[in-house]
Structure formats: C-alpha cells, structure tokens
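ok so for the tutorial part 2 we go from a plain amino acid sequence to predicted structure tokens. step 1 is just haveing the sequence, like this:
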Amino acid sequence: MAEQAHSNIPTDGNPNSNISPPSASLGQSVIPIVNRLQDIFAQLGSASTIDLPQVAVVGSQSSGKSSVLEALVGRDFLPRGADICTRRPLVLQLVQLPRGEDGSLSETAEWGEFLHLSGRRIFDFNAIRREIQAETEKEVGLNKGVSDKQIRLKIFSPNVLNITLVDLPGITRVPVGDQPSDIEARIRTMILSYIKHETCIILAVSPANSDLSNSDALQMARMADPDGSRTIGVITKLDIMDRGTDARNFLLGNVVPLRLGYIGIVNRSQEVYHSLADRCGVPQLAKKLNQILVQHIKAILPELKARINSQMVSVVKELSSYGETIDSKAGQGALLLIILTRYTEAFNSIVDGKSEDMATTELYGGARIHYIFQSIFVKCLEEVDPCGDITDEDIRTAIQNATGPKNALFVPEVPFEVLVRRQIIRLLDPSLQCARFIYEELVKIAHQCESIELQRFPVLCRRLEEVVGIFLQEGLAPAETMIENLICMEMDYINTSHPSFIGGSKAVEAALQQHRSAKETSEPDKAPGTEKVQKSRSLLAKKNISGVAVDQERPTQPVAHHEKPVSSGNTSVSSWGISSIFGGGGSHASSAKETSVYKSYNESTYNTEPTFSNIRLNEPPAILRPSEAQTDDELVEITVTKLLLRSYYNIVRKNIQDTVPKAIMHFLPVIHKNWDSFCSSEEIQFWA
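step 2 — the prediction. this is what the tokens look like for a chain of 688 residues:
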C-alpha cells in the first residue's frame, strides 16, 4: 500500500514540496497550541471534559488508511500485515520543522517521539514501527485483540504540515484470533466515541474498487455527521479500478455528496483526470486537511477558550483554598493539628445536629441515628409477639414435662421460665444489628467531614479515614459485648417480683375470666326445662349438705347384686352420691350389710378362674406427644402461661429498648469525647 501511495510523491521525498509558502505556513500558530493542549489532556485521561479539534481516520480493514497516513508523512513507520494491523488508536501529531537557509535537510532532520517515552527521540522509523507493535502487544497481546487505549506519537519533519490525526482500527466483520464475537460492534462503538464530537473532522477512507454507497467509512460518518459538514472523503486504490471505469463521479460527489468534497490518491493514470488535478494526490490531501483543520479550530476557538477559562477560574479558586506550601516541620505539624481539629469539630457538629451545612431535603447526621433507634429498633421490638412462635401444643407439652409422673395442682413455674428465656434471646440479634447500623452511620459521617484543607492532602485523607474506621471498630466490639451481657442478665434472673409483672393470681383470674367469656360466647342458650333441672339439682345438693332428707315418702330402689335384692332399709342415697361423701340418714345395720355384700362380690371376682387370653399392652412410641383433646384445665393453664409470658417479655423489652442505645452511644466513640486517645493513635502520630 505504501509503495502505491508513494507513486505520486515528488522525487525529493517531500509530498508537500510543491505547496506554496503561504500554504506551508498555514496553521503554524494555531495547530501547535492545540497539540500541546492534547498532550496535557491526554495525561488527565477521562478527567478531561474538553474535546479538542482533531482529524479521525475511519475506514474498513485494508481500505488503505495506514497507507494514507504514511503518504502524508513520507515515511514507512506503521505496522504491516494481511490481517488487522491497527489494534489501538494511534494519535499522530505532525509537526513541521523549518528548513535550513539553503533549503537542504540533514540526516537528523526527522524523528519521532512517543508520549510514554517522554523526551526520547527516535530517528529510525523502523524502530518507531517496532515500538508501536510492542506497545500494542503489551496492551492486547500477540493475537488480534483490540483496545481503546491510545498510543500518542509525534513526527517532527520539515516535509509535513501541522496536522493531528487519529488512526482508528479498521472495521472488521469476521472475528479472528482471540477477538470476541462482537468485535465489529466494539470497533464501531470505539469509532463513534471519537467522531461523534463536533470538534472532530472525519477522514472517511474508501477504496475505489468497491461500491461507494456501501462504504463502511461513509456509513459511520453519516451516523455522526448527517449533513456531511465535517467529513472529508478519501478515495484510495484508483490505480486498480476495472478497465473502462473511472472515479470522476466519486471525486465530484455525485454518488455520495459531502460538503468538504473528496480527494483521490495513488493515480497512475493522471492523464484521465487532468481536469480534477486539484482533487487528486497526497499533497492536495495534506493541504486540504491543514486548511480545514485550521478553519475548524478558528471556528470553535472562542467557545474552546471560554470553556478553558471557566475551568481555569474554578481550578485557581480551588488551588487558593488549599493555602500556601509549608516547608518547615513545625509548620507542617501545626497545619496537621489544625486539620485534625477541624475534622473532629465537623464530625461532632454533624452528630450533634449543629452543622452549618445542614440538609433540608433528608435526615442528616445525628437525626439518622435517632431514627434508627426509635423508628427502626424500638418499633421492631414492639411489633414482636412473644407468643407468635410458640403454639398451644408447645406450652401444653412444657407444662406436662414439668409436672413429672403426676398431675400438677397449680401451674408450674418451670415452663414459664423456659419459654420466657426463649423469647428474651430473640432480642439479641436486633440489638446487635442496631449497633452495626449506628457504626455504619458514623462511618458515613466520617466521610462527610472532609474539609478543603484535608482534600489538599489525599494520602492523609485516606489514612485518616482508615484511622477513624479502626477507631470506630474498636468501639463496636465492646458495645456488642455489653449488649450480649444485657441479654444474659435478663435471662439469668427472672424477676417475678417486678412491680409491673402481672403475677400468678392475677393471671389465673384473668385466664378464668377469658375462659368463661369464651364459653358463654360459644355455647348456645340452654332450654328452660334444662334450667329447671339445674335449679332442682342445686337445691337438692344444698339440702344434702345440711343433713335434711331428700324425700322421705319416695320408695327407695332395691339394690341388686347377682340378681338378689338387698335390704331396702330407710336409705336416702341420691343419684349424685353426695351422701356417701358427707353422710346421710341410713342406719348402721344397712351400712354393715352393704359392706358384706361388696365383700362377697370381691371374693367371688378374685376367685374366678380366667376364661380369656392374656391382655398385652402396646409399646410406647419413641416420640410421645400429648393427646389431641384438651381439657378445660389445660386451656386455662395455657392461657395463664401466655399472660405471664407477655407480661414479663414487655418488661424485658422496655429494658432493652432503653439500655441498648445507651450502651451503643457509650462505647461507639464520639470523637470529641475520646480526643486524646484519637490523637495519640499510632497512625496519627506517624503523620504528625
């Protein structure tokens, strides 16, 4: 390609030797200034927000982009190969050197400088090619990967005009080597990131032996520059067009019109295009690029100057706020003490709500800490039901386990203590989370306390943040230990004598009342006849208790035993069996006779020989649970246990809601309370 491109270069090796002196000196004052700004902004990287004028070379793979650049320089210095050669953007700054008085050139009149090799001049252009290859392989490897990281190269020569160009990777469609499957989309995105800016001139390179309407370069240019006001078309490979065809329609803009027109290069049939001589050749391309770039710079220079001045003012203001440079050790120590004092004052003012930069749109500083305590921690504990994770069966099982092999006369205390400890331990996790939340808020506040003086020293700023983080972390550990001790204290001693505790008697009374109310609500109204029977039975019981006969005139029923009647003396035993417990009107003889009857029955029973097979019991299962049916007594016991649990849990919850925030604010260090230990830390002493 380069050999073809050099076919229309003058014999003296200078493609611009036939340019008139006014054209050669065009841009001498403007373009070098822009080049210097580009070098400065390149060191800033993404921090730079100003887009400087430049020319971006766009084209498909093997369209002749690199050959055009070499033709402009008049030297071979770019990587060669059959596949993709440009794998990183190459920012090429051409700097024109003045010729000697006699117009002669010395052997060292041309050289190149890389920005990453600052101050090193490379006179061998083959060495420049090797350095480009080495930097490319260093970034993307030995295969065919691409990267958007720039390589910046300056070419100093008296044979060039002042132009800044960016050689971008060629558009490819089929991935090769270790290229990703979306290589085409990535390259197009990279190209658009350059040409989308209004300050960029697009040099769209298209080969003459392809359909110009389908040119990848022109399609990309149209996406970024729809009206074609900043796009220059370059038609390459004019010498290999099919016989009988020419590039007149291309060069005249009849196929794809562009405002800046087209330039054709590498013409071996110059006689065909005598009328288009001003549109052909590398010198014309160099001259046109120089002119357009200068005009473009002049057009955007006022806005560019205003933006630079605006940023200069803000930077100077920021610089002045940092103060003067201090060289003495004593002055540096005093400055460090001032910075630390202002830092702690800012921290404490934010926590105490006395900051001058108080926010009005959201909670800030200490208000956030109060919100965590009251609206998150306290509210969360209040919403917890102490009996929510305990079923009636759990309580029933615990009560039966506590009674042992016999029924309990009263509700045992052991199930209550076991169950209430299970509920108290649930308060540990939210309490520790609250401490962690406060720690994170204090760390955020520490980041908000960076003063302008502190920003002046970024290393000190980072170290101070680390020290404050360690300082707060050292306070978090004892705070968590104290919270665990508070929970353990509540679990170790169940104070049933607390004045706010409901107590056993009140709990039983309330449980019975709830049980009676539930039965009255659930049972239907009884019939009138049933009520009369109940009243008569009540009256009968009262008379029996007072020793009065129930009904002397009613004949007594004979008592049968083995179908033999027993003496029907003057007995008064009722169907309720009350007289048998408290005594009735029967005689001693009758009582003795009944005794003999029962005795004879028992004797006959035990003397009877078994006539059936032995009865075997089923073995108890490995896991036993209470029977499904609950008695009224068990329901009352469960209700009593729940009342006791809720009453004591509320006492413990209020204690935890009060003591946990106190423990957190005591142990998590507020810096002004621990100023001496903060300033005496090893890290702070090191910087002091």
